[in-house]
Amino acid sequence: MLVKKADFVISAVKPEQYPDDALPEIALAGRSNVGKSSLINCLLCRKNLARTSSKPGKTQTINFYRINDAFYFADVPGYGFARVPKSVKKTWGKMMETYLIGRKPLKAVIQMVDLRHPPSKDDQTMYDFLKYHQIPVWVVATKADKVPRGKWQKHLKIVKETLDMEKEDPILLFSAQTAYGKEQLWHLIVQQVAN
Ligand code: GTP
Ligand code: MG
User: Which domain CATH number covers 181?
Assistant: First the structure.
């Protein structure tokens, strides 16, 4: 995929602020610090278009990026970050729920998990939520560079089993460090936004 143009459009906290030009949209969801913003940067070959941080909780709003004037990436705030007051967690949860359930142009959610660890309770809840609302979901197991190649399949199996994934849902290995899996993911995205 040739990215000719990638623009940050808006940081939104409520639907009135979402882009309203009806272009198809792909959202990134996953635990705080799992690597959502890094994946966006890696796909777009931009160093820091989506702000990343080693401190969890960097992305606190829904950030929209318009790609080639053809579709959007929506970088959604990470969940499961313990050091956040309950009231803030509630606001985030509500904001994500409103977005995921109500967003018409949403074509798929890339649910990111860390290949190194079994998915958390929050990851399971997110997957179940997406399935319940019949939102197409692709699981991307990232930070593959941190797991020896010989163990990839074993770790992938644990991800699939822990999430109790449906057979037809795609699962991909990824690394923002090495760009492993980038072409395969682009392939899915291009297909889905053309639909
Ligand atoms: P929030 O915005 O807090 O929800 O986090 P995020 O999911 O956007 O994570 P972010 O992209 O900011 O990455 C968090 C940390 O993980 C950063 O230090 C990244 O450099 C690192 N990281 C992300 N992806 C990878 C990867 O594939 N491999 C390795 N080794 N590190 C990664
Ligand atoms: Mg982020």
Answer: 3.40.50.300
- Report CA(190)–ligand 1 centroid distance (Å): 24
Q: What is the ipTM of this complex?
A: 0.98
Identify the pLDDT of residue 57: 64
Q: Which residues surround ligand 2, an ion (CB under 5 A)?
A: 36-37, 58-59
Q: How far is the CA of 34 from the centre of ligand 2 (A)?
A: 8
Q: Provide the pLDDT confidence category of residue 55 given band limits of 50, 70 and 90.
A: confident
| Ligand 1 pocket residues where CB is under 6 Å | 30, 32-38, 52-54, 56-59, 77-78, 142-143, 145-146, 175-177
User: Is residue 51 a part of any domain in this protein?
Assistant: yes
Domain assignment present for 1: no
Three-state SS letters, the chain: CCCCCEEEEEEECCHHHCCCCCCCEEEEEEECCCCHHHHHHHHHCCCCCCCCCCCCCCCCCEEEEEECCCEEEEECCCECCCCCCHHHHHHHHHHHHHHHHHCCCEEEEEEEEECCCCCCHHHHHHHHHHHHCCCCEEEEEECHHHCCHHHHHHHHHHHHHHHCCCCCCCEEECCCCCCCCHHHHHHHHHHHHHC
